[in-house]
Amino acid sequence: MAPYPWSRQRYWSESRLSQQHRLKPFPRHTLLGTLMDSSNHDICPTWRNVLRIDDVPWLRDHQMMGLTTFPLAGYVSMAVEAAAQRAKLRGVSAPERFMMRDVQAIRPLLLSDGSEYELMTSVAAYAEVSRVGKDLSHLVYGDRVCAMTKGAYSTFVRCAATSVARIPDSMAFEEAASVPVVYSTAYYGLIELAGLAAGGKVLIHAAAGGVGQAVIQLAKMVGAEVFATVGSPEKKTLIMERYGIPEDRIWSSRDISFGPDIHKATSSVGVDVVLNSLAGDYLRETWECIAPFGRFIEVDKRNITSNTRLEMAMFDRNVTFSSVDLTLVAAERPVTMARTLNAVMALVTARVLRPIGPITVFGLGEIEKAFRLLQSGKTMAPSRGGWWHMCGRIDGAVADLVNNLQRTAPKANITVKACDVADARSVAHLVAQCEEELPPIRGCIHAAMVLRDVLFEKMTHYDYSEVVRPKVSGEWNMHMALASAALDFFIVLSSVAGIIGNRGQAAYAAANTSLDVLARHRQRLGLPGTSLALTAVQDVGYLAEGGAGRQVAVMHNLGGGISFTRA
């Protein structure tokens, strides 16, 4: 990042209070002074604000959406969906010293210098562009992008435009997150460095991992023959079924027997390219598998940081040893990084490369669980099977949702239970019962509804309560009962009546406004929350059951015009 123009310092008008804050020893950045280490971190550090913008008035012109930024030509500011920051850990006892370079870290690594230890929680980001430098033309505000940048677990990230690529609208953010590191590492190592071509032979360690799957796809794209190792029978099945790798071309990475087998399979010639992520004796066995003029591509940092020795005699066969570290490429070779990222994105957009899988998405509250899983090396996460709660009548819109579920998930089991969702005890009992009988809950769809259309001046308290209770009390009871659940989604079916109002529907409008507010409240708590404000649904549910007469009445309440939504 370009340095801040300190010549502007003469324009600062600093208060005594802000000067006292700025000169305290704990702010990480003398100028920004907004972040402070927390002593109770486990895997990733936590932070808290120590300064307000009122305390540092000279930074006001660099503020964006309440956060201080320094937009410079060639840098992109992005709203990234994540929650932590890159930090340096100091004063850590020897057994706790470790470095995790990115989300592919297998286990803690010891640094060789024995002095400083860096935790880089992520280098890949997916985001929407919120600001661009003045000299940029290929990115605009609102573009959906992926990027290579340090400290990607942040609300806002600035990075060089050469490390950013626009993603197609059809690509989910979860899939886009694999492009900057996974696919770019594979492409840079296999195509840029190794120059793998048709007819070549490539050995891929950890073939079921993210980079491994990307390398398999690239190798098949150029017409190369794939040899692979995996860590478990499940991973072997995965690459056989997903990529059609023959069983006799897959070996276990848990012992060194793959070496003699590969020599036998290649008539003692060896492979042209190796993508290595193994260490120790496994590294040396792999080194013996390289063919004359072969290219050995190292993608794991353990061998480098531990200064592992290799037999030099192999170089007499004109072999090449290269390592891949995209963070260094992005910093020192930005043009190469841009070329690699754009080439990968073109292949992904053209569907030559498909998303790696299976992709497991962890909620914000499961950060520690996600990192523990990565640390264990069991990167094929366990199935997140579970149950979904759908609240509402068993006919109408809920029935249509259930039918869609049956079509998309034919093995799903559907259980119907009676419950007064407006009664907190009844909801708590239902959730407790389901937790004992069913897998963990993964989602909630709140579709409860009672309609009693009547002009406000004629509305009784009973009418009002009957309409409001299932939505307002019901949604809150579900929110409280599932407060500790690791949900993938929490969806409430609301109505535009809460926004524009309908004749005779004051209570209904109030109830739906409450749904919208709860969804926003959950988002602010870092929990999933979505409110769908639908117009009148024509072909299922309340209107469809009431026939033409009910539709005419609704049209009258709307003032003569109506917009129907199809289920």
Automatic annotation (TrEMBL):
Q: Where is this region: N-terminal hotdog fold?
A: 29-160
Q: Which domain of life is it from?
A: Eukaryota
Name the segments for region: C-terminal hotdog fold.
178-358
Cite the PKS/mFAS DH domain residue spans from the record: 29-358
Q: Which InterPro entries match?
A: ER (IPR020843), GroES-like_sf (IPR011032), KR_dom (IPR057326), NAD(P)-bd_dom_sf (IPR036291), PKS_DH (IPR020807), PKS_DH_N (IPR049552), PKS_KR (IPR013968), PKS_mFAS_DH (IPR049900)
**Any Pfam family the entry gives:** KR
Q: Enumerate the UniProt keywords alphabetically.
A: Multifunctional enzyme, Oxidoreductase, Phosphopantetheine, Phosphoprotein, Transferase
| GO BP terms in the entry | fatty acid biosynthetic process; lactone biosynthetic process; secondary metabolite biosynthetic process
Check the record and name the SUPFAM superfamilies matching this protein.
GroES-like (SSF50129), NAD(P)-binding Rossmann-fold domains (SSF51735)
- GO MF entries: fatty acid synthase activity; oxidoreductase activity
Question: Could you tell me what this protein is called?
Answer: KR domain-containing protein
In its UniProt entry, the species of origin is given as Corynascus novoguineensis
From the broadest rank down, the organism's phylogenetic lineage runs: Eukaryota, Fungi, Dikarya, Ascomycota, Pezizomycotina
